C-alpha cells in the first residue's frame, strides 16, 4: 500500500479507490457516487459549490 493510500484509508476507513470527498466530507467510492448521481443526490451536494464559481 502506498503512503497516500494508507493515509486515505486511515482518514476514511475505506479500503478502495477512488475515495470521493466533498467539502472535506467523505462520500464514498465510485459505486456510491454513481448511485448518488442517478438519484439526484450528488447534484444537491454539489449545488452550493457550483453556484460559487
UniProtKB/TrEMBL annotation:
GO cellular component term of the entry, any: mitochondrion
Claim: Disulfide bond is one of the keywords in the record: no
InterPro entries: Glutaredoxin, Monothiol_GRX-rel, Thioredoxin-like_sf
A Pfam short name: Glutaredoxin
Keywords: Redox-active center
Residue ranges of domain Glutaredoxin in the record: 11-27
Top-level division of the source organism's lineage: Eukaryota
Family: Belongs to the glutaredoxin family. CGFS subfamily.
PANTHER family in the cross-refs: GLUTAREDOXIN FAMILY MEMBER, GLUTAREDOXIN-RELATED PROTEIN 5, MITOCHONDRIAL
Protein name as annotated: Glutaredoxin domain-containing protein
